[in-house]
Amino acid sequence: MESVEKQQRVSSAKESRLSEKKKDMLSGYLYVAPFFIIFGIIGLYPAVFSIVLAFQDWNGLGEMDFVGLRNFTVVLQDPLFWKSLYNTVIIGLMGTAPQLIVGLILAYFLNMAAVRFTNFFRVTIFMPYITSMVAVALVFGVFFSSNETALANYVIGWFGIDPVSWKTSEWGAKFAISLMVFWRWVGYNTIIYLAGLQSIPKHLYEAATIDGANKVQQFMHITIPLLKPFILLTVFMATVGALQLFAEPTVFLGSSAFTRDEAMTVVMYLYRDAFNLGSFGTASATAILLLIIIVGAAALNTWLTSGAGRRKKGA
Amino acid sequence: MSEHVKKRFKPGNIPVYIALGFASILSIFPFYWMFVMATQPSAAYNSIPPTLLPGGMLIENFQKVLDTIPFFQAMWNTILLCSIVTIIVLLISSLSGFAFAKFSFPGKNFLFICILLTMVIPPQLGLIPQYYLISQLGWLDTLFGAGVLFLLNPLGIFLMRQYISESVPDELIEAAKLDGCSNFRIYRSIVLPIIKPAFATLGIIVFTLVWGEFLWQFTVLRDPSSYTLQVALASLNNSFNVDFGMLLSGVFWATVPLILIFLIFNKWFISSITEGSIK
After folding, report:
1. What is the CATH number of domain A71-314?
2. What is the Cα–Cα distance from B11 to B18, expressed in whole angstroms?
3. 71-100 of A, contacting B, C-beta below 8 A
4. With contact defined as beta carbons under 8 Å apart, do A91 and A153 qualify?
């Protein structure tokens, strides 16, 4: 009698186990579904549509015309495309390379055991990152205004440099935009490097000190190699971000953003094609070219960075 | 105690303090200068030596901002947009994260890798079709249109899966199941209370991302009544003769709320950066 009851209980438990499994499966699919539904509509479909559009002539309203590779040849033969790519790369280099180096130095200082007030320094150095790109571009836009009396001109006057017309000169515009990118992102990189430095076990340095390695040697042979994942991450993010630059130059230049070419970036070129000139086909072709450039540059930079670390380790 | 002794001021570190102090001043100066200019007439900008002390036009300049752009409407739009997007992203991410961390279903790993792969697609690849889609739906100039792109947050799912698998014990879920709890009930009564810190981290990431984003909002919001703060501020700079006092007053009042929130919760902000990128 008792054993029958037990058997029944066991079998009903088994049954509920099975249906439990099915329920879990169902819940699993149900809970991950929203992402995939939204991604399908606003991620995948536009990406595929973009690739189709790149081979069409279309102004967004009328019929699409298949034109083969013509959009690509139009873009690639447009001097303004190459100028915008050149601008993007130059501003990217000037804005991001110093950012990573200074970030590393600041993080190293903040991580020194004997330094006090680190929380104050950390918060102030990180604060620019909280500010929006638009706000930064507007403040720098006034600082680097085209007036002769711009504060930036006053500052360079200390060094005996003549006033610059920051918004309309080739290097003035590039320098101002690079500087605002630099200012906004230094703190971000500092925080990431600081987290990296704090993850390095202290006893490695103690052992190296006992072995007679000086601070520079310790930095080159312990800090840099162990920090490599963090450096790779920041180089990757900075490369991808730099090639997508849009808000800073657009807002900095204001009404002349799409009419002058000193600081036009690739995304601005794309935006102008699509929304000012109504040429969705060439804009889509530009988007695909930019995607290829971003993937290539990110791969190249990641490869270079990891290579540099390896050589140092071997030496 | 030993920590305290270690951290005593050492004269040898003076150059380090100078470098850090210099970096701090350069980081803060634009904020201070923005405040100064927001309180000065536009003409103060041309004075030599430059004006570095606040003047008396704080209210007047802001009044001019209010006359030029619908500032409070834009502030409200921004807060509404950021809050709704953040709540939906937290919901989607925590549900998916829960499923990936605690359920087994066929194709789970494949689906998870798919989500990670979507991070690689750069946002402006789809810009034109996305704009076309939103315009076909009649969502231009609406917060729906401005917000829908931000609902995709693969990083959020990744963070939530990580956090839930580490901090929600399997035994607790098993016990709840024996008591006859449904999966959603488990999510609501057991998982949600445990993952509050992860909500704070992801919430800050999403909120500040949407707050500061420009390209997409600039593309779909054309009507001033639908402007978010960033689009409204950018429109202040669109004439050749800009009143700098007015311009920086707008930037100042748009920046102050976020800076205050940051100063109060700075530990959360800073850890959201490291957790969001290192994991």
Report:
1. 1.10.3720.10
2. 12
3. none
4. no
Mutate to test the interface with A, among B124, B135, B221, B265 (most CBs of A within 10 A): B124
Contact: B230, A188; criterion CB under 8 Å: no
Measured between beta carbons, which residues in chain A are less than 8 angstroms from residue B34? 139
Give chain A positions within 8 Å (CB) of B50. Answer: 151, 154
Kindly list the residues from chain B whose CB atom is less than 8 angstroms away from the CB atom of residue A289.
Answer: none
The string of pLDDT tens digits covering residues A92-140 is 999 999 999 999 999 999 988 777 888 899 999 999 999 999 999 999 9
Q: Percent helix, strand and coil across chain A, each rounded to 5?
A: 80, 0, 20
* Containing structural domain, residue B135: 69-236
- Confirm if A113 and A230 have CB atoms less than 8 A apart: no
Burial label, A4 (beta-carbon count in 10 A; 0-12, 13-18, 19+): exposed
**CATH number of the domain within which B217 lies:** 1.10.3720.10
Instruction: For residues A114 and A3, give the distance between their C-alpha atoms in angstroms, rounded to a whole number.
Output: 73
B146 falls within a domain: yes
Reference B224, options B82, B67, B83; nearest CA is: B67
* ipTM score for this prediction: 0.89
User: What mean pLDDT do residues B35-57 have?
Assistant: 81
